[in-house]
Write a structure and sequence with these properties.
By secondary structure, the protein is α+β, with helices and mostly antiparallel strands. It is built from 42 helices and 24 strands. The strands form six sheets. A seven-stranded mixed β-sheet has the order 18-19-21-20-22-24-23, sandwiched between helices. A six-stranded mixed β-sheet has the order 7-9-10-12-16-15, with helices on one face. A five-stranded antiparallel β-sheet has the order 8-11-17-13-14. Bound molecules: zinc ion (ZN). Residues 1107-1123 have a biased composition (Basic and acidic residues).
Amino acid sequence: MSRLKITILFVTRVPSNSRIVMLLGQLERMNGEAMVRDVETARQVTTKILHLIQTQEKSGKEVMSKGSSGMEVILASLEVSSQTTLEFLCISIVTDLLKRAFLFVSKGGTGILFQILTSASKELPPSEELMLQLHSLLAKVGPKDRKFGVKARLSGALNVTISLIKQNLQNAKLLLPCLQVLRVYSANSVNAISLGKNGVVELMFKIIAPYSKKNTSLLKVALDALGALLKSKTNARRAVDGSHVPALLALYLDWHRNDARHRHMLIRKGLLVCLRNITNIKLGRKAFIEADGMRILYNTSTECLPVRTLDPLINTSSLIMRKCFPKNRLPVPTIKSAFHYQLPHVLPVGPVAQLYSQPPGVDDVVDDSDDNEETEAETDTDNEEDEKNDDIETDLNKLHPTKSPGRPFEELRVYERFFLELSEDFQVRSLSSSSSSARSTRPIIVPTAQALSPKHMATPASQEIWNSIKGQHTQPPASATSRTPGSPVSATRHIQSPLLLGDIATRRVGGGGSDCGSEGAEDEGGEGAVLEVPDTALLLPLHDPDLYVEMVKGTRSVPQYAEVAYPDYFGHVAPTFKEPHLERVYGVQRSKIFQDIERLIHPNDILDKVVYDLDIPSGESLKFNSQFESGNLRKAIQVRKYEYDLVLNSDINSNHYHQWFYLEVSGMRVGTTYRFNIINCEKSNSQFNYGMQVLMYSVQEAISGRPRWVRTGTDICYYKNHFARSSIAAGGQKGKSYFTLTFSTTFSHKDDVCYFAYHYPYTYSTLKMHLAKLEALRTPHIYLRQDVLCETLGGNICPLLTITAMPESNSNDHICQFRNRPLIFLSARVHPGETNASWVMKGTLEFLMGTSPLAASLREAYIFKIVPMLNPDGVINGNHRCSLSGEDLNRQWQNPNPELHPTIYHTKSLLQYLAHIQRAPLVFCDYHGHSRKKNVFMYGCSVKETVWQSNISATSSDLHEDLGYRTLPKILSQIAPAFSMASCSFVVERSKEATARVVVWREIGVQRSYTMESTLCGCDQGKYKGLQIGTRELEEMGAQFCVALLRLKRLTGLRNHQHLLDLESDIIGTQSKVVSPTTYVMEEDEPSFLEAIDYSAESDNEDAEPENEHGNNVHENPDHLDQLSDSCNQT
Ligand SMILES: [Zn+2]
């Protein structure tokens, strides 16, 4: 029987001559044959040891002390002996020492106990006393031993315990420790299945029912064991088949009613856990609904609400109810976008072809989390899970930037026309005369794929250079024809909606002193309603309402919008007050969820009245509108008197990507609180759970001189709801639930027209207006050229800007310096919903065109090539993520299609051209917005940091990498208050291999290739800590980016600008040898807070359930596909 060889000389180990040490020494010497022969002596020694341990605390400590092998000696004698008495004594000793259970486990104690248990069970009848002792001991050891379940099964102990339970149902004294052990057994999924086969589920139901307050500790343990068993689908089905769901509900109700002082909360919780696990299967949910479970749990929870300590019951009930709430499809005819754009051609394998080949009824949601496919783990689940991120690129070949030749140079040569500054010799004209050259404009030829043939290419004559330098915007605003000097401010406060594009009559008010703003109008509009326009010319140098309208007229949208949104018309002046993160009210999510559940329980209270519908025009109640540029709202449904469900429209040619919203509301009552629910959000979490508010714009406020977006809304939270889409509609993934963003607000003006938006809107027409206005900032020292890179699918132009300084003179040296300036390539707004990127870009552009010495130096240092809006069509049509082709343009950089992705195709070609002529940019940066993180930060590309994160073995050559990619973010973290180095990552991910950042790094060979992500929410560090971000901070970020480039110039050792170096104070730590890799965080990195954010009310997601009530389960575990589609804002 002996397997454990005790070779340690106990006495020599511990230099002590205490009594217990001597006794242990004696026992150790007896181990083996001697003990079997001289049982009586062994027994005496053990008794003495036990006595000492029980009477002297010191002795116990000595046995357990570090370096002592007391535990080994005792275990060895346990194992060697077959004498019941002796075992009993040893067990008693061990029990007393078990405060150090991990030591016992690590020395193999569990296995020995199971061995004794199985051999003792063969004696007939087994000694009850011994069984009691053994089970008590196992119950204590079990939770400390991660392999307990496996060891129990392999030793045959499961059956011993089961038969003991069966034979001792009335013997509480023995039953309790047996159930305690069973509870540990059941935590192992393989054990749970095998115990279920042996009738243990039925057995547990016998123990827990009927309601009785006798022996509650036994009941509690039985419920725990049952709860663990029911995690197995087979067992859950057994429970349903045995009609135990109504029984459990009745029992729960009994406890709820009789436990008036809430002393048995754990029993009530145990019952709910059983229900929670049973309802993981479809049959279980069905049985729950049939047994009126929704009403029972809703009513009991409502009664528990006043008692804070009962929160765990409410939370678990809420989870069960949400899981069982029948899944509905969204209340729209199809989840495909309400608008359709006919593509020039549809790739047979592309997403659009797939979308339109879906069968009718594809959106119908069935409860498709099937429980028939019994794929229960036949492997043990108590292994530690390796959390590996398999998105990290591990292919070293792909990690090595290998410049790809791309298109042949013959093809790329046509892009020369966009780089006139690289060949201009400035000899034709003197610099002074050129700056006053004529304002004539010539159409710029659009190099789409078809137009790129040489015959269409204009010769880059110097005339054209100057024409294009002067820009295209020359025409005066059409509506500014019949202006008369300003008249006194009228008292009119009437606002009409919609603001139609056709006839907008304006009257400027306020803001004296600005001569360009003192125009009034009494023109042909005719209706008598004259719009008062706040004069913001001084505050908003780049804004002009009339010019905006002109720009809108040239913008082509798929729905052919004829309206203008007031906020875009009036402009936005950033408020001067602080806008802190909204503090979350305790229990807000729960109360919102309960209100949602009430819809099912009290359906008659629900109005269910469609008040706005893109598919069917109609309307009453609050009036909604979204039919203007960048607008997004598909449908509004009034559910209660002051509560509306809002459905967002999918991106065009797609059936999802809803997140961006921009909508108009009117017809409101003053002082009433309205609740709005956006019910088809898709991401699994949102900054709306962490202090972010929505934006609101009041036209009455604007007319009163405060044209601005302000953060608005209370009771904001974001949670999984009962709407879902089918798995086919979801593209083969599992059917996915939608999420609700809910917020409440009151309106403070009568007859107001208000707008809500996801973030500060920035339309394409706004961009065109800003670009036209930038022309006005040009001085003779600034070289600004605006080209049309190409035309988009929707027929809009994609602007390309070149900004640098004019050469100091036309001397050869100066011309040479001019041409050889390094290039900086910037782009933004490939994702339409990330409007913050446009505000950052606006800050960059304004800074670059500014008059500060820094700006002048910057222009002298670099040539800037900027594509400020990579996805105009998406922006115009209110998309969140895609272009008209229904695709994410930032996943097309590897192989862009010239027809379907023209802006990407031609932007990449520009970069390929530069690579060909050995002028690849020093920095490439694509501006984005991030919806799930705070602060502003960058993603870059580093072989080294990717290798570090992935544990792949790499040769040392891979680890020699210039740390230059870190310089720019490092500088930014020092000068830009919103920027956080800690949030940056330089890991190359597989899912990002077709993004601008990775392709420009890998194929063009730009080491400093970045995505710059700006938060939609706010900051949790630096000067803006605790505040929500506004346009001022975003624009500042764009300006600081420029300043950082100037510092980079110095640090990269390029010549020139010595006079500016004094402005730079601190040294950037790029020379340091070891840089710790930044943390690589795929998901949002928010801390948890009191109310568990619980998105897991789905049967396929039980692992994400809160196991404790303190709710540190903010992190969901979406599957990989989820991550891909959820990573929307990450690049
Ligand atoms: Zn993005």
